[in-house]
Design a protein that fits this description.
The complex is a heterotrimer. By secondary structure, chain B is of the alpha+beta class. Chain B has 14 helices and 23 strands. In chain B, helix 3 crosses helix 12. Chain C has 16 helices and no strands. Classes of the chains: A alpha+beta, B alpha+beta, C mainly alpha. The interface between B and C is medium-sized, with 24 and 21 residues.
Chain lengths: 313, 481, 316
């Protein structure tokens, strides 16, 4: 089973001193089916602040910290060691027509039948959320989705087809969008980054009555053959999980047109980016700022023991 | 549909019965009015105007030129409610608020009512007012809406009796109680002799009740809680009321910038150093409370407040997320809540409501737009609604298109013929439509309210819109024994 | 009390005091400009007015000529000049509005009425007015606010912070006035014991309502040395630096909190330098240098008061 060391460094440089800073970090990989976080440290500079750990309402670990001494640089270093099990794909159960998922949710949520617990939990990812409004373009998004979700088509097959089409129809362009670019605009301009494609795919799925959530995490990228792994060359990543009755959540990565399969590490999930962004804060002072983010995912041998344990032996 | 709500029925007159006789509880007033020279009344009216201006009881009207402060017209003719009627209302209001609080506690915990299929889950989950942040958060006493304003209207029944209906629940930041208190003060000052003819139940202890209520919901273990009133600031339309209530309760009126959170504990900045805050009576919407949890661009809130709240270190009154229970899309289910949580039949009825998300209801309503009132489910303050009988053909057609574009955004109700009460107008005394907003306080085990409430009156002849933002006025409300 | 409330009261008082002192200075220059034969350099006085308030650069940017009318307009009414009397009175009213619930109705009505009366005043309308009477009006409104504050407000911490604003601003303004005027009137190298210009020194005294007092205290001709002494060291003179520091030290003692020790100490040291100071010592260092140092101290004191009481940024 793959074991990874992940370094995620964020550095904010401010034009003038920040007097007070309060931050929320979603930087500790959550434990979930097929994933276990063996070790995690979060180092914050300047270090004399206060911090608290808790679990947010989607079950993700979150660290809240505040800095009260004036500072012009904030550095947050997250180090995690995570064991990931390649996912077993629900071939058989996933072969049921996708409409079953929609019906299950519709019946459960519209009061025409008692609500089952699984549908209730999925239900919170079924509707509009702050970054994914389902207003004006929802009909067009629905039409786009339905070209993959043809009548009677198996859920997983349709899901992968939609991811493929997004991958084919949209251009990856980090310069084209920002955190604030609305889904409708991404759809219009046909370009964006992983966050945009994930939001778009979620919007498509919700527009046709399915439940989908936003997964924030990392992806191991293999260096070109013969070249060393570059420190900081990776980035935080995002993909989508859709809900399938009797199966649960099925992950799919529209940016890379693939099913996460041992190379994806989950940090947190929520309704959209806003629920799980790695670092969110409010500062007093500071003026303008520049931010640098560096992520490195390093495989730790195949099932090798952590280094310090090896030394003890 | 009951006879009482039939379109076009003659409105119930609060003062006169159908045969024109003065109802018993208005008779002493009628005799007194008869003795009063008209000039004296006119003088008292201008006296009241000047006094209100001086105290500064004004109201900012949205969209008005430069957010100008405007006086809400005060009508000298009181609305009188017999004690026996009030006791029945009180029972119904307490029951309704108890059920609404039970609903909120359930929605943010076990969601039994959804599991039972009594309310469609999508009405909750697909509602911007539902706050996932509140899931599993235990609030003191299990209370969410400690201060509720329930809007009641009265319509004439077939038997000539007026029946009260709940038009709307206000469970977030209901306002208007300062007018209720100032109106009474004004009446006692202008017409002390009237109060010797009636035994009018007092209302001026409201700030004490409110303070007791707020203290009762302090976090567990806090012996002498520090209570504050939180306002968005001096430019808010209800700022007068915020400062009035803080002053009357003798507590600080704070803005977001006055407070900070450390180690999940909330403090306010005072000249003597930080002071811990235990209970916030907040008059600011959920979205603006905490930029770390909600709208990041909010300059009005306190970063980290939600964390302190979720940790149980501070109580917010009202709680975060109460809006999911007073939304117009949830309103139709409130009687069902009373049955589900309390096992009782509702004392107070809803106005019959068609939900346009349902195909049959939609078809029915589209056929009868000129007769009905159509409301946006997430609208407030009388904006975004159609009053069929008072609208032109063009307005109705325009609204029809809006409904067709998104039927699930609307509900419809019969045009209630709101009861009328005699009111001073240019031409003398004439009937005008009124409603009633009692303020219901829930703290600890008790539900309490001061007798009566705020009576709002539509000053334009024939108008049914009583909102102060749209030309409504107010009256003193007497509950008499 | 809430820090923000204290902050608003403090600035309400400071801005009102600033407006008053600004017209006091204008008044002097205006009167002098009407005296025959005392205008050596007609521009010097008006430039001094701008210097006192550190407005020369801002004024230069407007491209206006250095004429009495233009300077008066700029200092009184300019909307873009944040120190103009118009803006001071607006700011005073805004601060009062923010804490209306903490003011007595007399205080609110005074501040509000002052603002309403100056709000629509334009340069064109100003031309038709008797300037002297207008200056008197501004002074009178400031006196009135101070009077109703003392006479109607409960003498708790809120009251103390309003007073603190008044005296901090006044100490600053008197020091600036003395510094700039002194050097405009006293070219370097002249003997400070000689009165070179009776009218000019007299008008300086008038601008701080000290003309009669001077006569009463010194029963002597007006000398620059004594003028400086009266305005700096005489603690019975209400606008003197010493008198202001008396009040500031007293108030800081009353509102002290756990973090304000150093502020109290600094204010005490500044007070002592005036209480035990002598004009000979001051002139030995240099009057300008002494006043500059004083202004820097007052400035720092204001910052410390802000940090300790009014806008504490850092948490405990």
């Amino acid at each position: 089973m793959p074991l990874y060391d992940i370094a995620h460094d964020t550095i904010y440089r401010y034009d003038s001193a920040v007097l007070l800073s309060q931050q929320l970090a979603h930087l500790r990989p959550r434990d979930c089916v097929g994933q276990h976080c063996l070790a995690h440290t979060l180092t914050i500079e300047p270090g004399e602040g206060r911090r608290r750990e808790r679990i947010d309402f989607f079950g993700n670990p979150v660290t809240a910290f505040s800095l009260q001494a004036p500072h012009d640089t904030l550095a947050v270093h997250a180090r995690s060691r995570v064991r990931v099990k390649p996912s077993t794909w629900p071939e058989r159960a996933g072969s049921a027509p996708w409409e079953l998922a929609r019906e299950h949710l519709r019946k459960g949520l519209s009061g025409h039948a008692p609500l089952q617990d699984d549908a209730r939990d999925a239900g919170q990812y079924r509707f509009a959320s702050p970054f994914i409004p389902l207003g004006d373009p929802s009909a067009r998004l629905g039409d786009y989705a339905l070209r993959s979700f043809r009548p009677g088509r198996p859920m997983v097959e349709a899901l992968l087809d939609l991811a493929s089409r997004i991958h084919a129809d949209f251009r990856f362009d980090p310069a084209a969008t920002s955190v604030a670019t609305p889904v409708a605009e991404v759809f219009e301009r046909r370009c964006g980054v992983c966050q945009d494609f994930s939001h778009l795919m979620i919007a498509c799925l919700r527009a046709i009555g399915l439940a989908a959530r936003y997964v924030s995490g990392y992806l191991l990228t293999e260096p070109p053959p013969g070249q060393p792994r570059l420190i900081g060359a990776d980035a935080s990543h995002a993909w989508v999980a859709a809900w399938c009755p009797g199966v649960g959540w099925v992950d799919v990565d529209p940016t890379n047109d693939m099913r996460p399969d041992g190379a994806h590490v989950t940090l947190a999930w929520g309704r959209d980016y806003g629920d799980v962004c790695p670092l969110r804060g409010v500062i007093l002072g500071g003026g303008g700022h520049r931010v640098e983010v560096a992520v490195t995912v390093t495989p730790v041998g195949s099932g090798a023991l952590p280094q310090h344990a090896a030394r003890e032996r | 549909m009951s006879e009482a709500t039939r379109t076009g029925a003659t409105p119930y007159d609060e003062m006169h019965s159908a045969d024109g006789a003065v109802r018993p509880h208005y008779q002493p007033y009628e005799r007194w009015l008869h003795e009063m020279p008209r000039e004296l009344i006119d003088r008292k009216r201008s006296e009241a105007d000047i006094a209100f201006h001086r105290v500064g009881i004004t109201f900012n009207v949205y969209g008005a030129e430069g957010g100008k402060e405007r006086l809400i017209p005060f009508d000298l003719l009181p609305r009188i409610i017999p004690g026996s009627e009030w006791r029945e209302l009180e029972r119904g209001l307490a029951q309704r608020v108890r059920a609404l609080n039970a609903f909120l506690a359930d929605i943010y915990h076990g969601q039994e009512i959804l599991r039972a299929g009594r309310i469609p889950a999508d009405q909750i989950l697909d509602n911007a007012q539902f706050r996932p942040e509140m899931k599993g958060v235990d609030v003191p006493g299990g209370l969410y809406s400690m201060i509720a304003g329930i809007d009641l209207v009265r319509a004439a029944g077939a038997d000539g009796r007026g029946e009260f209906f709940v038009l709307e629940d206000n469970l977030r930041v209901p306002s208007g109680v300062s007018y209720l208190l100032e109106n009474r003060k004004m009446m006692m000052r202008l017409f002390p002799d009237l109060f010797s003819r009636y035994h009018v139940q007092p209302v001026d202890h409201y700030p004490d009740l409110l303070l007791e209520t707020l203290r009762a919901v302090a976090p567990a273990g806090v012996v002498d809680p520090t209570v504050v009133v939180m306002t968005p600031g001096a430019h808010n339309s209800a700022y007068f009321e915020h400062s009035f209530l803080a002053q009357q309760m003798g507590v600080e009126l704070v803005e977001g910038q006055d407070m900070f959170v450390q180690d999940d504990v909330l403090y306010m900045r005072t000249t003597q150093g930080p002071r811990r805050v235990d209970v916030i009576y907040r008059r600011i919407d959920d979205d603006f409370l905490d930029p770390l949890a909600f709208r990041a661009d909010s300059m009005l809130g306190v970063p980290g407040l939600m964390r302190a709240y979720q940790a149980g270190h501070v109580t917010l009154a009202n709680a975060v997320g109460t809006g999911v229970a007073d939304d117009k899309s949830i309103y139709p289910y409130v009687p069902e809540m009373v049955r589900f949580y309390l096992g009782e039949e509702p004392v107070l009825n809803n106005v019959p409501t068609w939900m346009l998300r349902e195909k049959d209801d939609l078809a029915y309503v589209l056929d009868r737009l000129p007769e009905l009132v159509v409301k946006e489910v997430h609208g407030a303050g009388g904006y975004g609604m159609l009053v069929g009988p008072a609208s032109t053909k063009a307005q109705i057609e325009d609204f029809r298109q809006r409904i067709l574009a998104a039927p699930e955004k609307y509900i419809a109700q019969p045009t209630l013929s709101l009861s009328t009460c005699p009111t001073f107008v240019e031409a003398g005394i004439a009937p005008r439509h009124i409603d009633l907003r009692p303020f219901v306080l829930s703290g600890g085990k008790q539900i309490r309210m001061v007798p009566g409430g705020l009576t709002r009156v539509a000053l334009k002849e024939g108008s049914l819109v009583v909102n102060s933002s749209q030309g409504g006025g107010t009256k003193d409300t007497w509950v008499v024994d | 009390m809430l820090s923000r409330t204290a902050d608003h009261l403090y600035w309400m008082a400071r801005y009102t005091e600033r407006a008053e002192n600004t017209v006091r200075m204008l008044d002097v220059s205006y009167r002098m400009s009407m005296l025959p034969g005392v205008n050596g350099d007609g521009h010097a006085d008006w430039r001094a007015i701008l210097d006192i308030s550190e407005l020369s650069d801002a004024y230069a940017r407007t491209g206006r000529p250095l004429s009495p009318r233009d300077v008066i307009e700029f200092v009184l009414l300019d909307r873009d000049n944040l120190s103009s009397v118009w803006n001071c009175l607006r700011a005073a009213r805004e601060n009062a509005h923010a804490v209306r619930g903490k003011l007595t109705s007399e205080m609110w009505e005074t501040t509000n009425t002052t603002w309403l009366e100056i709000r629509d005043l334009t340069p064109v309308r100003l031309q038709d007015m008797d300037l002297g009477a207008f200056f008197e009006w501004v002074k009178f409104r400031s006196h009135l606010l101070r009077g109703v504050t003392v006479g109607t407000m409960f003498h708790d911490d809120a009251f103390q912070f309003a007073r603190l604003g008044t005296f901090l601003e006044r100490a600053d303004n008197t020091a600036r006035l003395l510094d700039v005027k002194y050097h405009a009137l006293m070219p370097a190298g002249e003997d400070v014991h000689n009165a070179t210009d009776y009218y000019r020194w007299g008008s300086l005294l008038r601008s701080v309502s000290a003309f009669e007092t001077y006569r009463q205290v010194y029963r002597d001709v007006i000398t620059p040395h004594k003028v400086a002494e009266l305005l700096m060291l005489n603690d019975a003179m209400p606008r003197s630096l010493h008198a202001c520091l008396d009040e500031i030290v007293d108030i800081l003692g009353q509102v002290a909190n756990s973090r304000s020790c150093e502020t109290t100490r600094k204010a005490g040291a500044l007070h002592a330098s005036l209480h035990y100071g002598s004009m000979d010592d001051i002139f030995a260092v240099g009057l300008h240098e002494s006043l500059e140092k004083f202004l820097a101290c007052i400035n720092k004191l204001g910052d410390r008061i802000s940090n300790d009481f009014l806008m504490p940024v850092a948490t405990p």
